[in-house]
Amino acid sequence: MSNPIKNLLGQTAVYGLSSIVGRLLNYLLVPLYTSVFANPSDYGVVSELYAWVAFLVVFLTFGMETAFFRFLQDKEDKDKVFLNGFLTVIGVNVIFFIALLFFNQNIADVMLYSDHPEYIILLGAIVCIDAITALPLAKLRAENKAKQFASIQFASIGVNIGLNLFLMLGAFDPARPEEGVLFILFANLFASLVKPILLYKHFLNLRLNFDFTLAKEMGIYAIPLVIAGFAGIVNETIDRILLKHILYDGSTVESLTYAEGQVGIYSACYKLAMLVTILLQAYRYAAEPFFFAQMKNEEKNKVYAKVMNFFVAMVCLVFLVVSLNIDIFKLFIRNEAYYVGLGVVPILLLANVFLGIYYNQSIWYKLSGQTKFGAFIAIAGAGLTLIINIIFIPIYGFMACAWATLIVYAFQMVASYLLGQKYYPIKYNLRKFGLYLGVALFFYFITRILDIQGSMGKLFVHNALILLYIAMVYSFEKSSFKKTT
Question: In this predicted structure, what is the pLDDT of residue 24?
Fold first, then answer.
C-alpha cells in the first residue's frame, strides 16, 4: 500500500505547481505595479478593489466546492451532486450580476469611487466568472485530473501576466493612474474568461435536472461554510478596507490620497508575507479531497496527525526563509517609498503560519459535518478583527492591521484545536509543533539580537540557521517517508 503522506505531497506538488508558479508570476507584478505607480495611493486603489474580490468569491461560490467533495463520498450519483452544486452557483451569480448592473453607481459612491462605476462592473464580471468555474475545476480535482487542472490555471495566469506586461509597460500613461487600474481589471477579466472557454464541455453538458432535495442538503451543509468563509475573509482583507475609510477624514482630496497611500504601502509589504499563503493555497487544493478520501481509512487520525507534522514544519520554514532574508525579498518592491511598511512582514508571516495550522485543523468539523463550529470560530475572529482595527488604526495605522491579523489567527487556531479535541479528537503531536514553531521563533529573535551589519555575513549566518532548521526537521520526519505495507 502506498504511503498516504507521499501521495498528499505528490498531489500538492502537482496542484501547487499552478498555484505556486501562478502566485510567483503574480508576485512579479508587485515590482511592476510599484514602479509604474509612483504614488502608493494609486496602488492602494488596486489593492482595495482586490480586497473586495476576496469577499465576493466566498459568497458567490456559496460553499459548493467543499459540499461537492463531502457529498461525493455518500451519494452514488456523482454527476447529480456536481450538477446541483453547479446550477446553484450559476443561479447565485446570475442574480448577483443583474443586481450589480442596476446598482453599480450606488456601490461606487459607498466605496468612494463615484467617478468610476466601471470599476465595479468589471470587478463583478471577474468574480462571477471565477465563481462559476470553481465547480468544474473542483470536479477535475475530485477526479485526480491534476494535469488538466494545472494547464487551465496556467493558461489563465499566462494571459493575465502577458496582458499586464503589454498594457502597463506599453500603453499605460503614468499621468493617468485611473487608466492603469482599468488596464489591470481588463487583463484579469480576459484571463478569467480563459477558464470557461477551456472548460466548455462542462457547460455544454449542463442539464436543467435540478434535485431540490439534494440541493437543500448541500445548502444546509454549505451555508455555515459560507458564513465561516465570509468571516474568514473579514479577518484576511477587511484591514485594507478599514485602513482607507478610517484614515480618510471625509473632507479633503489630500486626506483620501494619504489613506489610499497607506493602503498601498501595507498591501505591497503584505505581498512579501504571502509566501506562506501561496504554500497554503497549493496545499489546500490537494488536501481537501485527500482528507475526505481518508474518511474510511481505519488509521485516518494517524494520517491527519502526520500530515499536520509536515505542515507545521513547512510553514515555519517559509517564515524563516522570508523573515531572515527580508533584505533580498524587499527588492521585489521597486519603489523605496513603500519600505516604511516592512516592519509588518514578520508579524504577517507568523500570522499566516497560525492561519495555516488553523486551516489544517478545520478538517475536523468538515469531516464530522459540524460545520457550524467553523462559522462560530470565524465569526468570533471577524468580530475581534473589527474591534482591534477600529480601535487601533487611528493610533498605529497599518501596524494595527498586522497585529490584529496575528492575534485573530492565533485565537482561531487555539479555539479550533480545543473544540476539535472535544467533538472530533485527533491526537496531534503538540510537543513537535511547539518544537518546530519555538525553534523558528528562537532563530528569528537571535538574528534580531545579533543584528549583523555586513550584508554577506548576515546572509551567511541567517541561511546557516535555515539549513540547521531543515536538518532538524528532516531528522524528526524522515521515518514518515518510509513505505507502508
Answer: 66
Write out the H or E segment, with its range, that includes residue 33: helix 29-36
Alpha helices in 199-252 (DSSP H): 200-204, 212-247
Which residue, among 94, 20, 97, 93, has the nearest Cα to 58 in the 3D structure?
93
Residue pair 201/140 in contact (Cβ under 8 Å)? The answer is no
* Mean pLDDT, residues 294-317: 78
How far, in whole angstroms, is CA 48 from its chain's centroid? 15
Closest-CA residue to 200 (of 286, 150, 146, 132): 132
Neighbours of 467 (CB within 10 A): 9
Sketch the domain layout of the chain as residue ranges.
Answer: 4-481
pLDDT of residue 177: 86
State the Rg of the chain over Cα: 22
pLDDT at 285: 62
CA angle at residue 211 from 205 to 217, to 5 degrees?
120
pLDDT at 484: 41
What mean pLDDT value characterizes the chain? 84
**Cell numbers placing 377:** 470560530
Place of cell 477535475: 140
Question: In this structure, which amino acid lies at residue 147?
Answer: K
Write the pLDDT tens digit of every residue in 333-347. Answer: 878 888 999 999 999
Cell of 355: 492561519
Nearest alpha carbon to residue 50 among 6, 95, 7, 111 = 111
Answer whether 278's CB lies under 8 Å from 20's CB.
yes
The residue type of 19 is S
Whether 312 and 433 have beta carbons less than 8 Å apart is answered as: yes
User: What tens digit of pLDDT does each residue of 80-132 get?
Assistant: 888 888 888 898 999 999 999 999 999 999 888 888 999 999 999 999 999 99
Give the tens place of pLDDT for each residue, 235-256.
Answer: 778 898 899 999 998 778 888 8
User: Rounded to an integer, what distance in angstroms lies between the CA atom of residue 389 and that of residue 394?
Assistant: 9
Q: What is the pLDDT of residues 264-303, one digit of tens each?
A: 999 989 888 877 777 676 666 666 666 766 666 666 777 7
Residue 403: all three cell numbers together: 497585529
- CA atoms of 225 and 219, how far apart (whole Å): 10
Distance of CA 154 to the CA centre of its chain: 18
